UniProtKB/TrEMBL annotation:
SMART domains: Bet_v_1. It comes from Cicer arietinum (Chickpea). InterPro entries: Bet_v_I/MLP (IPR000916), MLP-like (IPR052006), START-like_dom_sf (IPR023393). GO terms for biological process: defense response. It holds the Pfam family Bet_v_1. Residues 2-152 form the Bet v I/Major latex protein domain. This is MLP-like protein 28. It comes from the Eukaryota. Belongs to the MLP family.
Amino acid sequence: MVLAGKISTEVGVRASADKFFHLFSKKLHDVQNHCERVHETILHEGDDWHVSDSVKQWTYVIDGKVHTCKESVEEIDEENKKLTFKLFGGDIDEHYKIFKLIIEVIDKADGSASVKWTIEYEKIHEDYDPPNGYMDYFAKCTKDMDAHLVNA
């Protein structure tokens, strides 16, 4: 009976690693303007989008179904362009005890960049599937956000 797991996907981007990381570390409220799969994001608690005591509420679409959850920042590592978020509430709590999202924006040796999404999770029950739909969602959102950042 395996309840905990970790899944990852990495997506190449045309925007610079700095530009992509800046979107998540300083302009998280703009994600909804760059990705059609994100319907709404609101600051639920706190005064600043990018501090650990703030809570945001997200409304998004995965596989044609509208989902909601709340999110808080656990860590921002500027040097390594890595962010860690805790997702909870809404649809997340129906299936997972723990749902941690880690975003790493990677500078490649050839000057290109990629975005690595990792989900660390613990399921409530062994019959629930791993959050593979979320990996597809993040990969598609990365492409949408990249297109906007390249044209900005």
